[in-house]
Each structure stands twice: as structure tokens, then as C-alpha cells.
Amino acid sequence: MAAISRIHHSNVVRLLGFCYEGTRRAIVYEFMPNGSLERFICLQEAKPPRHLLNWEQLHKIAIGIARGIEYLHQGCNQRILHFDIKPHNILLDHNFCPKISDFGLAKLCSRDQSVVSMTGPRGTAGYTAPELFSRNFGEVSCKSDVYSFGMLLLGLVGSRRRINFQSESQSHTQVYFPIWIYERLSLEKDLELQVEMGGDEEIAKKMAIVALWCIQWNPKDRPSMTMVIQKLEGHSQSIEMPPKPCISSDIEIDSYQC
After folding, report:
1. Contact 148, 86 (CB under 8 A)
2. CA distance 100 to 93
3. Which pTM does this prediction carry?
4. Domain of residue 161, CATH code
5. Counting CB atoms within 10 angstroms of each CB, which of 15, 18, 65, 89 has the fewest?
6. Which Gene3D superfamilies does the protein's record reference (predicted)?
């Protein structure tokens, strides 16, 4: 609570108070009228139907989240590793400004500490970096949050698809979306996104390319959040395609059920 109370950033939720009385535990945040970002990703079964955010809005939200994570990594007296970046933990105010919330799995470390020790994996399946499952993939660091952000970005892009991308030869097997979108981008094919969203599809392509950089299997190959912001604010033509994402059958990485 002490660490969160000292956080002041437009893209991190503001703590108003807390209760710690016997078995009663509660945290009071500022009211966020638009709820969580998850409500605007899983739209297919939403009742009543929810507002469909266009690509400019999604892009602005993505940059806001990235700035919030960068602040946690670089702007605080102590570096804060969130370890649970996902749409459910991104709250939206009345102007759809994103704010990072839920620091229940977060870990504090010094600003000059690049690697942190962990006793076991933490986070949400589908968004958790591979090194949190096995150190064979690399050391746990702020790059673990970068991976989670990349999966969140892919979730934003994937939620606006207008097709059910299944393998033609395996009609009952869901294709791993990062591989699907990597191949579409490499071949310069249409991403099969919803046309009614309006806006520039180049934004969606840029978000997808940045996301693919963020989910590189080796943490050293992922950009810092500062570089992520630069890429998101730049032109898609200036961003190189990353190596093809790896897949491990030992880790549950399918998070595109919406």
C-alpha cells in the first residue's frame, strides 16, 4: 500500500484508501466508469452489445498502457514489476484513458536491479512470460512485463478479427494467433479485420508487429518499454519484422477464446 500510494501517473490507477481490519481487506481506487479493457475485447457474447472501439482509440489505449508500464519500471523510486498485465487489470476512465491496476502479484526491486529472484511462476495463463515457468528461457526481469504487454496487444488486434482462423487441414484445431498473424504480415496479406471499425488498418499492423517483438521467447530479444512506446508512436514502415515467435507445448499460451 505504501508503494502504490506514492505512484502518481496518468496511466496508473490512483489509490484512495484501504481497509485492513481483522479479516476485512479492501482497496479503494478512483472510480473508472468504463470498467476494464476486457469488457471491450470480448464483444461476441456481450449482452447488451458494447461500444466498438476504433483503431485510433485502441492505439491510444495501447500507448497509454505502455507509458504506465514504463513508469513502473523507470519512473518510481523503486522499480515495480507488475507480473499480471492483462486486459482485466487495465481500467478505463470516462475518456477511455487506460490505467494499470491490481498490484497483487507485483514485486519491488531497486532501480539498478536488472534480474529478480522468483520462487515460482506468477501471472495469468496466456500472458505469463516463459521465463517465469522455467529459467531455461532466461532470467526474470522487467522484460517479463514486456511479454505480457505483447500478448495484450495481440489480444486487442485478435479481438477485431472477422474470421475464425482455423487450419484448413485441421478444422478442429485452433491456430496459435501470433503464428497466424506473423505469417499474414510476412506475406503482406490482409489481416481479415472488421471493416466497420473504421480508421487506418496500418495502425493494427503496427500494433501487431510491435506485439511480436514483445513476445520473443528470449527476454534479451524483447525491447524495453521505452522502445515499445517509440515503435508504437512511429510509422509501421520503419519497424522491422521480428523473428518468428516460438511455441512450447509445455506452456499454456492460448488466450484468444473471445
Report:
1. yes
2. 11
3. 0.88
4. 1.10.510.10
5. 18
6. Phosphorylase Kinase, domain 1, Transferase(Phosphotransferase) domain 1
Structural contact between residues 173 and 249, judged by C-beta atoms closer than 8 angstroms: no
Instruction: Tell me, yes or no, whether 247 lies in a domain.
Output: no
Instruction: Report the C-alpha gap between 7 and 258 in whole angstroms.
Output: 32
Question: Tell me: the pLDDT tens digits for 187-219?
Answer: 988 887 765 555 578 899 999 999 999 999 999
pLDDT digits (tens, 9 = 90+) for 158-178: 877 655 544 443 443 456 788
The DSSP output letter for 244 is P
| Domain contains 40 | yes
**Domain, as residue range, for 213:** 32-238
Is residue 117 scored above 60 in pLDDT? yes
Q: What angle do CA 218, 219, 221 make, to 5 degrees?
A: 70
Measured in degrees and rounded to the nearest 5, phi and psi for residue 191 equal -85, 0
Look at the chain and report how many structural domains it folds into. 1
Rounded Cα–Cα distance for residues 67 and 250 (Å)? 32
Distance (Å, rounded) from C-alpha 11 to C-alpha 61?
A: 9
Q: Which residues pair with 91 in a beta bridge?
A: 36, 99
198, amino acid identity: G
Inside any domain, residue 5: no
Catalytically active residues, by annotation: 84
Q: Mean of the pLDDT values across residues 43-63? A: 76
Q: Which of 123, 143, 117 is nearest to 215 (CA)?
A: 143
Q: What is the DSSP string of 39-105?
A: GGT--TT-SS------HHHHHHHHHHHHHHHHIIIIISSSEEE-S--SGGGEEE-TT--EEE---TT
Closest CA to 61 of 103, 90, 102: 90
Asked if the structure places residue 216 within a domain, the reply is yes
How many whole angstroms separate alpha carbon 52 and alpha carbon 108?
36
